[in-house]
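input
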Amino acid sequence: MDKPGPSKTRKVKDENRQFQEIWTEKYFFVWSHNKVVCLICKNSVAIAKEYNVKRHYETQHPTFTKFTGELRKQKMLSLKRELIGQQAMFTKPIQDSETATEVSYEISRMIAKRSRPFNDGDFVKECIEIAAKKMCPEAAKKFEKIQLNRMNIQRRIISLSGNIAEQLNEKIKIIEFFSLALDESTDIN
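output
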């Protein structure tokens, strides 16, 4: 009976393939978000090896071989700026949306802390929008994204209370002793 030897199948992760900076000048490719991306058509290549990059460039973009010297560098830089601009266009709205959600949670927490009715969220939003239009009209649209209606406030408070309960349960698991301080109540009921 033969002993099984080392596996002879090739694995991409074992081959240590990495993007080469020279590919940017030669083939208009860059390393972006853990992918090798073509600056011309914005497509990515499955495996980062020169053969794949070269084949894509020669078959999909043969007209770009006419760019040489300084003209080629200028074209490459302009395509790089374009790619960065497109990527930034998608990340900015996501950041604005996340910020609006964080603000909504903070306001919900304040409403719960002060035992205010959930409908106060609508009033708070109106106040914020008026202040934003007067003080910074260029950013007023961002304030409109904050969700402060009654149902959102309710869901946020439930989420916050669930998180607090979860944190307390985790801390209770690790403590050995605790003390309680009780005070006499003057409530008739």
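quick obs: Residues 36 and 44 are 5 Å apart (CA to CA).
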